[in-house]
Amino acid sequence: MQINTKSFLDEYFEEYKKLTFTQDAYENIDKFASLASRVKATNNKLMFAGNGASASIAAHGAVDFTKQGKVRGVTFHDANLMTCFANDFGYDHWIAKALEHYADDGDAVVLISVSGKSPSVVNAAKYAKARGLPVISFSAQTIDNPLRQLSDIKFFVPSMAYNIVENIHSIWLTATIDAVIGKAEYTTRALVDA
C-alpha cells in the first residue's frame, strides 16, 4: 500500500506545530532558564539523565548548557558508571544512586522519560525531592505520569508518538539553553590560528 507522503507529512508536521509552541512551553522555558541562571550564579550544576533516546537528549543538554550556556551540566551515562551502579544497586535505582554520590546542595536535576514511568527515572525524582533538589522533567503520554507528578518544572507533550515527543523535548531543552544565552546564533567553536 502506497501512502500519500505529502498528506502524511502535512498532518505529521501539524502535530509539531500544535504540540510544541504552547503557552505551557513558554512558561516552562522561562522557569527553567531562570533556575539555570540561579544554578550558574551559585556555581552549582544541572544533572541530566534518561534512558535510550532520552539519555541522548540529556547528554546533548548537559554539553550545551556547559559549553554554550556556561551552566555546568553533567550526565551519568558513562558505560562504566551505569553498569557498575546498575549491577550493584539494580537498574531501577542506578540514577538515584548516581545522584546520591554526585549531588550537592543547590544543584538541580533534569530527568527525561517519554512515558514518565521508567523506574530508574522515577526513583531518581523521588531521591531528588527527598534531598530538596529541584526536578525539571520532560515527559509525555499521560498527564498524571509519576515523573511529572514529582517535578517542579513539568515539560509535557500530550502524545504517544515517540519520535515527535523526543524531538519536541529536544526543541524545548535547546530553546532553554538559548534563552539563558539570550540569542540563537553564536560562535560554537573557538577560532584557532592555523
Task: Give a description of the structure.
Residues 35-194 form the SIS domain. One of its GO terms (molecular function) is isomerase activity. Keywords: Isomerase. The chain has 194 residues and is an alpha/beta fold. The protein has one domain: Glucose-6-phosphate isomerase like protein, domain 1 (Rossmann fold), CATH 3.40.50. Helix content is 55%, strand content 13%. The chain has a five-stranded parallel sheet with strand order 2-1-3-4-5, sandwiched between helices. Helix 3 links the parallel strand 1 and strand 2. The chain is globular.
Features:
alpha/beta; single chain; Rossmann fold; 5 strands; globular; 194 residues; 8 helices; isomerase activity; 5-stranded parallel sheet
Do you know the CATH topology? Rossmann fold
| Proportion of residues in β-strands | 5-15%
Low-confidence stretches: none
**Integer average pLDDT:** 95
**Overall geometric form:** globular
Q: Fraction of residues in helices?
A: 55-70%
CATH homologous superfamily assignment: Glucose-6-phosphate isomerase like protein, domain 1
Determine the number of helices (DSSP H or I, runs of at least 4 residues): 8
Domain count: 1
CATH hierarchy: architecture: 3-Layer(aba) Sandwich
CATH class: Alpha Beta
**Largest sheet: spatial strand order:** 2-1-3-4-5
